[in-house]
Amino acid sequence: MSKVTLEDISAVLDVSKNTVSxxxxxxxxxxxxxxxxxxxxxxxxxxxxxxxxxxxxxxITIICRQSFFADVxxxxxxxxxxxxxxxxxxxxxxxxxxxxxxxxxxxTFSSITSHPSDGYIIVGTISDVxxxxxxETNIPVVVVDHFSENIECDYIxxxxxxxxxxxxxxxxxxxHKNIGFINNSISAYSFIERYxxxxxxxxxxxxTVSNDFLWLDAVYIETEYYKNKINSxxxxxxxxxxWVCVNDTTAITFINAxxxxxxxxxxxxxxIGFDNISELLNPGLTTIDVPKQxxxxxxxxxxxxxxxxxxxPYTNIILSTQLVERNSVKKL
Length: 332
Fold this sequence. Notes:
Blueprint: H1 6-13, H2 17-25, H3 32-45, E1 59-65, H4 66-69, H5 75-88, E2 92-98, H6 106-113, E3 119-123, H7 128-135, E4 141-144, E5 154-158, H8 160-173, E6 179-184, H9 189-204, E7 214-218, H10 224-233, E8 242-245, H11 248-260, E9 270-272, E10 287-289, H12 292-308, E11 316-319, E12 322-324
Parallel strand pairs: 1-2, 1-3, 3-4, 4-5, 5-11, 6-7, 6-8, 8-9
Antiparallel strand pairs: 10-12
Helix pairs in contact: 1-2, 2-3, 5-12, 8-9, 10-11
């Protein structure tokens, strides 16, 4: 049997030899659908170079909103995980911080693609418009702490649902029945998951959810929001003995508001956070630990795997979360 050539493959699909070559090399300029057809046909025809066309990761770009870079608690540990693993693998890093207000503009995408990169790691929330453009470059991409049903690619997340389950179970074990939930006005995939998990597991534990104690648009730092909410609801007979907060920053601001009103934690009110960024808080905040460094490491590990295995189905890797018991929950 004669050796299969690029011309043979291009003739079957009625595309150019150059298009076949691009598809097999993983080069941009070929749609994902056509690329899959070409690779499958080449494999079926016995073309010998299909499995040799693996991309090598030597330099990657971390893409993140500017506001996340300003954070000094959660995101730096994710970045450290990426950097630590990159150092082990001798991979160079560059960072592209994007202006959220210009995220969908062509200038943002042009800036990202203006310098060569073997792969992209997107950290945190990103619009579907920009994520779609990045994916269409056919350069490997992994997204950390975000998920979109509209864009198929590799995602790395932590188990928000399991974390909320553990929080509510722990409060039940400490005999709390009236449990409120405080969400943040910032829109994030993990925040939505945690709220939905709260509703789900409150029902499973046969606990009543009161709309009076679903505070879904809280803010950071400023305590006025919380004090207004407390003043308008504290005289209700079912005012919660315990609260689950969507993250530690929200929990800390809530606790500060309680202290300003002379309400003690955990003597008067119990509080559980999420993320485990507040080890120095007094009293120590009981929270759900998110493996932030491991998420960063896993993101780069998956990016390398994706570069070498472009035809493997995409995955959403969920890392486990753990309850960290400190001193902000009282046993009734």
